[in-house]
Amino acid sequence: MSSDEAEIFIPRKRAREELEVIECEKSDEEEESCPICYEYFSNSGHHRISSLKCGHLFGFECIKRWIQTNNGRVGCPKCNQSSCLRDIRILYHRGIKVIDTSEKTQLLEQLEQERNHKLKILTQLDAAKFRIQMLTNENTALKKQVKQTNFKFASLSNNDTENSSTLFKLAHVSEISKETSLRVMCFAPSTNSIYFAEPVHVGPFRGKYSIRSFDLQTMRLRAGNADHSGPVWCLSVQPSGNYLASGGEDKTLQIFSVHTDRKVHFFNAPSKVISCAFADFESVSDNFIFAGLDSGRVVLFDLRMTNRLVQEYNIDFNPHPRVQSLATVRRGLLIGQLNRVSLLRLPQPQDNEVEFLFEEDDPTQLENRDVVDLTSRNNNNEDPAPITPPPDMQLEELTLNGNLVCLCSLPKSNKFLATFRSTRTIPQTRYLFGQVNPQSASEIATFHGPEQMPKLVRSTLFKMDEKICGLAGDFSSRGAVIWNAESSEVIQKIKPPKVSSDNIVMDACTLSSAGNKIAILSQKEFPKPTTLWGQDDDYVYLTVQVLEAANVYVDIGDEALHFECAGYSFDIDLFLPVINDRSGFTICDQNVKIKLKKEHVACWSRLTLRKERLSWLKIDFDRFSQENSDDSDTEYDGNQQESNINVKFVKPTPEERARHDKERELIDAEEDWNEFVKFIKNPLVIYALLLYIFQLAGAISIAISTCSVKLNLVNVTGRFTHKYSFLVYVLESETVFTLNVDRVCLMNLVLVIECLSVVFHMEKHLNLVSQVQRTFARNLVVFCALLPFENVRNDDSVGTLFMLWALWDIVRYVRLLVMTVSLEDNGFLCYLWHTVWIVLHPTCFILEGWLLVKALPSIAESKAFALNLHWPLEINLYFSWIVHLHLVFSAVHLCRSMRRKYFQRRNTIGPKPRKGTPEYSGLKGLLGGPYWDFLKRSLPSSRPVTVTKQERILERVSASQDIATR
Fold this sequence. Notes:
5-stranded mixed sheet; Herpes Virus-1; Immunoglobulin-like; Protein-tyrosine phosphatase-like A domain-containing protein 1; DNA repair; elongated; zinc
């Protein structure tokens, strides 16, 4: 053996020891790092030392992610022993070399906190900047408003009252409404607001009328209360300034608080309320309110006696009984009807009382009036405390005759102003200023206005600089006129800005006791006159009915017609072109007759180009029923007897039909699209569609998942017979419940939203009691029987109940969707809806009752949902009592519901045919004769229906008569 070989020679025992040492060092290095990511362990953070139940060491986050990525059940990465998340254990060992990351973890947490704090500070900084910008803009607007207000008041204070051209200046213009049906307004000094009535066209109060207010301090509109179901004809403010009264065509007199803008009470009147006025007499409380009715009666109400009217005055000597206007004077009430004026006079004062009939009151001496709080009255119907009744008033007829429009008076005086329309003897509008004497009424002065008054407008009387002035609309200048009522001298003519030919001043009122501020209510559109139209082969005839045919202007174009008269105007795009050179018109006393020559010999299906219903345009059926007219081109004379006209429907040429059909298709498509957009923009429609679609999708998914469960073949008898086997299909209840429990719970919770929708009248076609019972029954079965108790949800009837619920919801929500979109009930769905309940209602009731009865022992034993009431009651309320009550109530409700649905089915579809009748046989008899006919009408016909020309004509004439009747 050489020396080199001796140097490298190692004994065998020593070699084994060194090999073991090397392997031990290698294993120690492996134990110091994670076998998954080969990173060193740490004593804190996400890479702490942890082990599985087999004993191998890993980083906590690494082994957690390893198990989660393999669906929660996987073997150990080293020994492949089955492990899960709950087998992970965090270890604390000193012998293992770990990296100290506590300081790093702490610094990372501090860094994250600083980032969050910085983000919070930046968010607060942005919010502060936005608020500063908003406040800056608001400050700028307020400065501008203050500057404008100072300028307005300065200009008003520097006005020269003697110079009529600078008496009143424009201070503010505001568009309070886009409606053209505003009739009346009034001013409340206590709140410095103007009140007016406006119709509501959107929202849940569509079709009603709202009382709104305009604040003169902020120059802004305030929201109103939609309490009137018809047009509002009158408004009146209590002299003490606490309440506002409004009357209208809904036969009610509404009382509002001007301080809260809320309705506090309403009185029911025998007929329509046309006018109203608070009592403003001497020694009489202003809690009395008079209401003038359409039937010619004046009724008296008391705000302190809210359960009945106080007194009724019947004016029976007038053939035109409508009480047009009411006005209070010092010793009585002026009653204005359409053709005369009457006076309800207070009794004469006693000898020791002094009566000042011809002197004005001192405005500084105001009597103390009692204020009634209607909001704090008792809810019972008992009569209030004894109240001194008003003195008996005597009815007198005054010698003021004419076509009365309105009455107004000065507060605490006997002066009044009566407005009369023009008549045949007096062809001008009259404004009669007079006073009430102890015996009668006398005329002081009369101011004559324009010749025509196209609409019933109101005038006002006010006092300014010791002068009594009148204010009314001036139709000749499209503005207003102010005159001295005592001398009938014009003081000033006021023109609103942007005056056009369709501007009308409807009402006016004073805004201060000194009479230096006034408000004017004007409209921007003329009313449309009632127009009758008819036609024959060659001509179209229009009869425009007006009060007085004056200043008539008619512009006949090839495809359009423009009409203007005193107070009336309209424009029409004609259905087909006309020949304007051979067309003309004739002016009569109270109508204008227009004759249009057709360009093509054809029958017009309507007068206007667009398919729209105009309330002022009606069909003249007399024109359609007369014989053929004279074809001469002589001008149409309205005073002569009209020639007979006969209607002939001539078939147009193919080219004309194609052109007209194309135009009509474009117009109809545009109208359909506009109607669809308007329909979709309704938030209630969007809410209903989303709710029904959501519930329908849930029901379909439950039905599909239930049907897709594997069906097991079971022998009912327990054994197979030699010849017959009774086999049925049953569902795996546990599988059905597991698949559908989340969707069933969600759908039953959404049913609560449907109940709230019915309560708030968002879904008017649903029955509240049935909806609440169905919701409560389903939620009781799911949340109190199936979810808590395993023995109940393992029952075989759970899958069947889910399937029946799903089928019922599918039929129900499909029908509701069709009714919401098409606004009418489909025949087949209606028949199905009125048929499936015969099977589904009792079956669902039996299955729900069975599950609740099966859950009763478990509920009673576990005392689930029990309520313990401690001292002083010491009562235990058990939930099983509620289940028993529910079962009894459900049985009663099932009988009542099936009876109600039976009558609905009978009224909708018809009764079942009797035995022995021809309708009783075959499929028709199986479904029932009327049922078969109802179902047949709902299905599309496979055979085209042939309609003759005469039948089409009769159908159009019948449709026109129906429209005229409506």
